[in-house]
Amino acid sequence: MTDNHLRDVIDVAAGRKPADIVLKNAKVINVVSHEIYEADVAILGDRIAGLGTYDGKTTYDLKGRHVCPGFIDAHVHIESSLLSVPEFARTVVARGTTAVVADPHEFANVMGAEGIAFVLRAAQYAPIDVFITLSSCVPASPLESTGVALGAEDLESFFANKWVLGLAEVMNYPGVINAQEDVLKKLAIAAGKVIDGHAPSLSGNGLAAYAAAGIMSDHECVDADEAAEKLRQGMYIMIREGSQTRNLKALLPLVRKETASHFMFCTDDKDVEDLLSEGQIDYMVRTAIAQGLDPILAVRLASYNTARYFGLKQRGAVVPGYHADLTILEDLQECRVTEVFRRGELVAQDGRCIAPRDALGQKVPLRSSIDVHWMEIADFQIPAPEGTSEASPPNIHVIHARENHIDTERSVEPAVVRNGLLVADPDRDLAKIMVIDRHRASGEIGHGFVRGFGLKGGAIASTVAHDAHNMIIVGMSDDDMLAAGIHLIKLHGGLAIVHEGRVLADVPLPIAGLVSSEPAERVARQLHELSAAAKQLDCPFEQPFMSLAFLSLSVIGKLKVTNLGLIDVEKFAPIPLIAD
Amino acid sequence: MTDNHLRDVIDVAAGRKPADIVLKNAKVINVVSHEIYEADVAILGDRIAGLGTYDGKTTYDLKGRHVCPGFIDAHVHIESSLLSVPEFARTVVARGTTAVVADPHEFANVMGAEGIAFVLRAAQYAPIDVFITLSSCVPASPLESTGVALGAEDLESFFANKWVLGLAEVMNYPGVINAQEDVLKKLAIAAGKVIDGHAPSLSGNGLAAYAAAGIMSDHECVDADEAAEKLRQGMYIMIREGSQTRNLKALLPLVRKETASHFMFCTDDKDVEDLLSEGQIDYMVRTAIAQGLDPILAVRLASYNTARYFGLKQRGAVVPGYHADLTILEDLQECRVTEVFRRGELVAQDGRCIAPRDALGQKVPLRSSIDVHWMEIADFQIPAPEGTSEASPPNIHVIHARENHIDTERSVEPAVVRNGLLVADPDRDLAKIMVIDRHRASGEIGHGFVRGFGLKGGAIASTVAHDAHNMIIVGMSDDDMLAAGIHLIKLHGGLAIVHEGRVLADVPLPIAGLVSSEPAERVARQLHELSAAAKQLDCPFEQPFMSLAFLSLSVIGKLKVTNLGLIDVEKFAPIPLIAD
After folding, report:
1. DSSP per position, B403-435
2. Nearest beta carbon to residue A259 from set B34, B50, B314
3. Is the dihedral of CA A254, A260, A264, A265 positive or negative?
4. What is the DSSP letter of A77?
5. Closest residue by Cα to residue A107 from A78, A81, A73
6. pLDDT tens, B10-48?
7. Could you tell me if A297 lies within 8 Å of chain B, comparing CB atoms?
8. How many CA atoms lie within 13 A of B81 on its CB side?
9. What's the Cα-to-Cα distance from B101 to each of B129, B190, B286, B306, rounded to whole Å?
10. For labelling alongside B509, which of A265, A360, B219, B415 has CA 20 to 30 A away?
């Protein structure tokens, strides 16, 4: 606040000047005093001036509706929505979220420090406040090539930015526990800031070491026992409810009145369709209340606790001097968000963002990210090893993809040889899979075979593939795989399904090859068409692109594939396609 | 932590290296998970490495005693103990306090910025961590002269010091509510830091304005209703239990599990005798538990909550990575403090500080503070106005002092005239009172008459007189008043009782004329002798020097006296001694 603004806020609070806006007939949810009561809420500029009896230039009659602090998502990868930062913001503000703490992990993996800077740039056109934690594990694995790497020296200067709150999920927990030099360097530059954790299933002395290193929170707990142990180490628990990973119901029993201040809500990864249909943090508030959590505590976990954890002063409560980021709820059962104020302005009403789109927000500069070595059909062919034939095929390692699982199973079985090549076989649900470097035009291609997609033909291709986001293509036809790859290059990245040379459906993701530049509803429609096209090819997965996106993540599962080839995850090393 | 120290802490936590110290058979009070359980506490250097099963070079068998985080006093004026910073620290660490947030308000009123710097200097020799909030109201009143004034520009550079946490109690709440320029300037430089409040009885829109200005807390609540209203404005409540002002029992009912994180304990002003006999924060923990507060919450209000409020990272809980500031309690009823570890070292045992005194701590440099214009007997005489006589005395304003009250009553009554002078009269309990500038040798003396001290003769004198700490002398004899004043000058400040030319008792307070350089037990003994001497003069007050110290505080009560003369507090202006 400027001195003058503060003076005006004090004048309004003291009743000497009228407020800009007064919310009348409001039931205030006070997460500090743990009360709900009727009071006028006086707003001046971007601040709450006072609660009591006030006059204002504009009055909203809330007719008994509830005033909550605007919701804050404690940890989110905006990229998972496939939306640009401003469009994501428009989508979630309509559901009552006025601030998020975003980890631009995918942008950072693709574009490095420039990806982080881009999010900070783009956020200026968002109708919510986008805080950043700095992606701590780029690249995520040495077994896949990205174009970038972020060391402590790359991250350090970002801490001078007021929107940067700390270090994002330190996924490399073995590195922490083993006191690895490069990891400790990153912790050191974040000292005095927030350091978020990510340590699924870690316990015992390993967990103690992780906590002792100064890691303050975790959002990977899947059951109450796991969360209880982490809480006991002094860690804050971010309860996560995303699209795939849903931990809310399992963790709620641990939230007691005595410990509630150490819990907060986050979505981590939630796709645009779920954001539009279910909601975001509002969905967690609603569900938590339905599960029996005290509604005031539910709202507190959605706002105040997160603000306190991140040291966000004067945010997260409906009290004087705090930011006028307010979410109005119809009631405390359905928790329908009727209005949302951000910085004292009405920005959403009845589930729609009414703030005008800023034209500049549509063209926040970022260089193109798809840099693929010129592809030819030969790149998609796998020669059969010498001494093998149709009648005497070699044994190969096969990846088994499963819906809603980011891990995989594996098998060894005979390949199909045709014309001296190893080929896909729709009858055995054996598709070819290619991961193509899209960062440095190196021509590096890893290949393998995968079961599970059930394609009768064609190819599906994506430039969203965790965590390096190389181009990944699965298909039954080399020609269609090549066509799909070329189509994605022309789109500057995206998702596509090709069959018999024709693009059945696509979702252009021109921003870093990761997110769309279109409004949420349009992206959701495109995704819907994409799913329909996948069904047309007999794919049994509801979300084939979600499964696809994790087949190159070389740190979880049994067998994966990256631009460096097939990866035996348990050995943490590449292996040849041919099994001896 | 240095990188190397962090590496070692992680090694110990992970079980790869032995700890320096392991506390065995410990019952850990975990204020984060709200549990008490048995675990080894492994300490390396100044940090807790892990809780679980650990080996160490040194082992303490706690035999089932309780391990708490070291207590933190959220708001204390060390000067009220009459002890130097290191001796105060030795006294409270023996009672389990390992950190305090001190407001050096008295040092600042006497010595200005140098007084604040002195506390920061002296704190380096203290066996506790002394954090500072910057005194926000120096001088406290325009109706008394100090040698110093602290504006925003004087305070600003202190914020660069890591021990400085924010702005201390903003007592000038009318200045805040009226958006006074100089007050807002101080708030502005503290933005992003903690701003403590002090607003007795403030409520309604005035309180809203105070909270809207960014004042984050209050320690002046005397009942639960007052505290509830402040909590509702988003303010944190520091529950105070000092020597005079005791709010603990009145406020405890407001501490609910849902709101507990917004409460903390402080002493504000507690004298050395009470510190030695009752204790400090340990006394509050003990009393709160006896009053029915959940013991874990009691410990949390005494440690963790305060650390969170002030943004003190990794302090206030017994969890990995946190500072190894630990207080061991025999049980959770008596709460006897058996051992105290600070920075991983045993510094107190069985109620005694065992850390060696640092000789340098005894002579932390600070210039002398008593600068009084050469005094003669004439300075202590008050000529009777022309036209008055023994038979026809003038009416004068008389101050009525009361024990345990910092306010006063007043009356108008005939003076006693003898030899052309207005004189004291033991028969009517009418003592003379003088307030002598001791900062600038200006020769400014305010004088008046006071009832209540009941002296049969002699004089009592002090250089502790809130908030300007001029020299204040009450007496029945001008000669004894002069002698007492000269004695205090020779002591470089202090407390003294003089009768018939003889010093009956004194307490030298050579540090800023405010605190002793002696150990606590010796100061307590001196104070005891001082009380005995006052009784010898028939003074009915248990603590005459406490009453004396507030007779010049010109912002509360009806009639006071400063170096500028008698002060009509309600008119907020000086008035003549003679009532017309």
Report:
1. TT-SS-EEEEEE-EEETTEEE-BGGGTBEEEEE
2. B34
3. positive
4. -
5. A78
6. 999 999 999 999 999 999 999 999 999 999 999 999 999
7. yes
8. 30
9. 9, 16, 21, 9
10. B219
Enter the tokens of residue B514. 């405010």
Q: Which of A15, A33, A177 sits opposite B14 (nearest CB)?
A: A177
- How is B350-368 classified by DSSP, letter by letter? TTEE-SPPPGGGGG-----
CB contact under 8 A, A308 and B311: no
* Cβ–Cβ gap B206/A231 under 8 Å: no
Tokens 């923990």 — which residue? B285
The answer to whether B580 faces chain A, any CB pair under 8 Å, is no
| C-alpha–C-alpha distance, residues A179 and A173, integer Å | 9
Q: Give the gap in angstroms from C-alpha B129 to the nearest C-alpha of chain A.
A: 18
B346-354 contact pairs (CB < 8 A, 24+) = B346/B60, B347/B93, B347/B127, B348/B93, B348/B94, B348/B96, B348/B127, B351/B94, B351/B95, B352/B94, B353/B90, B353/B91, B353/B93, B353/B94, B353/B127
- Residue type present at position A514: L
Host H or E run for residue A489: helix A478-491
Contact in structure between B307 and B18 (CB atoms under 8 Å):
no
Q: What is the pLDDT along chain A (580 residues), one digit of tens a residue?
A: 888 999 999 999 999 999 999 999 999 999 999 999 999 999 999 999 999 999 999 999 999 999 999 999 999 999 999 999 999 999 999 999 999 999 999 999 999 999 999 999 999 999 999 999 999 999 988 899 888 999 999 999 999 999 999 999 999 999 999 999 999 999 999 998 999 999 999 999 999 999 999 999 999 999 999 999 999 999 999 999 999 899 999 999 999 999 999 999 999 999 999 999 999 999 999 999 999 999 999 999 999 999 999 999 999 999 999 999 999 999 999 999 999 999 999 999 999 999 999 888 888 999 999 999 999 999 999 999 999 999 999 999 999 999 888 889 999 999 999 999 999 999 999 999 999 999 999 999 999 999 999 999 999 999 999 999 999 999 999 999 999 999 999 999 999 999 999 999 999 999 999 999 999 999 999 999 999 999 999 999 999 999 999 999 998 899 999 999 999 999 999 999 999 7
Q: For A36, which residue in chain B has the nearest alpha carbon?
A: B232
Residue A363: exposure state from Cβ atoms within 10 A (0-12, 13-18, ≥19)? exposed
Size of interface A-B (CB pairs under 8 A): 181
* Beta-ladder partners of A207: none
Contact at CB, B1 and A234, closer than 8 angstroms:
no
Q: Tell me the residues of chain A between 502 and 521 that have a Cβ less than 8 Å away from chain B.
A: none
Identify the CA nearest to A93 among candidates A306, A436, A325.
A325
Q: Which residues pair with A133 in a beta bridge?
A: A166
Encoded amino acid at B326, one letter: L
Q: What is the pTM of this model?
A: 0.95
Six-digit token pair at A369?
């990210």
Strands of B469-564 (E only): list them.
471-475, 494-499, 502-508, 559-562
CA pair distance B523, B517, nearest whole angstrom? 9
Report, in angstroms and rounded to the nearest whole number, the Rg of chain A calculated over CA atoms. 25
Q: Which residues pair with A97 in a beta bridge?
A: A71
Q: Nearest-CA distance from A165 to chain B in Å?
A: 13
Task: For residue A22, give Cα distances in angstroms to A52, A343, A502, B57, B232.
Answer: 10, 14, 58, 64, 18
Cβ of residue A317 closer than 8 Å to a chain B Cβ: yes
**The two structure tokens encoding residue A126:** 């968002």
Q: pLDDT by residue (tens digit) across A489-523? A: 999 999 999 999 999 999 999 999 999 999 999 99
**pLDDT per residue over B102-111, tens digit each?**
999 999 999 9
Q: Is B170 helix (H, G, I), strand (E, B) or coil?
A: strand
